Amino acid sequence: MSHSKKASVLYIEDNRVNLEIVRRMLTYIGYDVIQAERGISGVETAKRDRPDLILVDMFLPDIGGADVIKALRQSLDYDVPIIVITASEYPKAQQACRDAGCNGFMLKPVSRSDLLKTVKRHLQISSSAVG
Fold first, then answer.
1. pTM of the entire predicted model
2. In this structure, which long-range contacts are made by residues 76-80, counting pairs with CB atoms below 8 Å and at least 24 apart in sequence?
3. Does 3 have pLDDT greater than 50?
């Protein structure tokens, strides 16, 4: 990730209010935000746009968050950080997402400071692993 290119974040979330809140928080500080409202379209978007980080809701209308993460890990040819943003505190669902390969969790409603810290931390880890 070069300093001249804005980092891109894909947010896979079916709730348009949540999409807009997170998009505003991230674009305000300079990230490019890509949106998808379904898991399958999110995987296709990730393959096409190659975001620097992916945020995914655990419960989507078409496929669950763990299945989205599995599909992303199987279909992407690079190691992108994937963070689950969810209102669910179910340990089994969180474990399924961990087993599928997510890098972290955030509980809704997310605060701006927590979101920005988490995104920044995972983007720094990702870019330092590459370069």
1. 0.92
2. 76/46, 76/47, 76/50, 78/50, 79/126, 79/129, 80/46, 80/50, 80/51, 80/52, 80/53, 80/54, 80/126
3. no
